[in-house]
Amino acid sequence: MRRVREKVRMPLATNTVVVNFEQLATNLLNTAVDVVLLDTTFWGGIRACVKAAAICETFQLGVAVHSSGELGIQLATMLHLGAVIPNLSFAADAHYHHLTDDIIAGGKLKYEDGCIAVPSSPGLGVKLDRDKVAEYRELYLRLGSYAYDQDPLRPGWTPTIPNDRWADPRDARVPEIPN
Q1: H-run or E-run covering 37
Q2: Residue 92 burial (CB < 10 Å; 0-12/13-18/19+)?
Q3: β-pairing, 62-65 with 35-38?
Q4: φ and ψ at 65, to 5 degrees?
Q5: The pTM is what?
Q6: Which distant-in-sequence residues (6+ apart) come within 8 Å of 90 by Cβ?
Q7: What pLDDT digit, counting tens, does each position of 93-126 carry?
Q8: How many CB atoms lie under 10 A from the CB of residue 104?
């Protein structure tokens, strides 16, 4: 990232580095990213993200809100975070529109004109649909953990850096999802 940053004029951001305070300190000493992506999951909650945003403001780094494919309850944390960071200088990232369902009461939060309003009820502003939580608990028990960086067609494969074990693009197999 540092080498790329030296060669391009656009601000750089990534969700693979500068996702905690140790990496933020390293980035401040030898800048690789210009925009730090704050995520309440990676950074450890709203308070930690607000602290990171303040550090970024002090050292003139941009901040954006990062999406990690969250459900509505985490999205509510991200919406509240985005609302309280005065130096949110880049558009918020969201994968929420890819979801077909959610575990919050009333269904998915609604987009209006490309935005989702910050929930205004007490707490995070959302309530859990306990039946949906039970339904997805059963699905989790059946399918197992979300293998974010795993390839179901290559059992035992894990990403390495640098990766020289690419999947064959001619391989037409489709993973089977258990019922």
Answers
A1: strand 35-38
A2: middle
A3: parallel
A4: -95, 125
A5: 0.77
A6: 11, 13, 35, 62, 63, 64
A7: 888 888 889 999 999 999 999 889 999 999 999 9
A8: 22
